[in-house]
Amino acid sequence: MTKLIVICGATATGKSGLALDLAMRLGSGILSADSRQVYREFDIGTAKPTKAEQKLVPHYLIDICNPTDTMTVADYQEQAQALIACAPTEQGEVRGEITSSSSLASPTSPPLLVGGTGLYIRSITQGMKIPRVAPHKELRSQLESLGQRQLYAMLQQIDPIAAQKIHPHDAVRTLRALEVFYITGCPISEQQGENPPNYPILQIGLDCDSTHLTHRISQRTKKMILDGLVVEVESLCQKYGPDLPLLNTLGYQEIKQYLAGDISLDKAKELTVVHTRQFAKRQRTWFRAYPQIEWFDTENPHLLEEVWHKVQKFINDS
Question: pTM for the whole thing?
Answer without folding.
Answer: 0.85
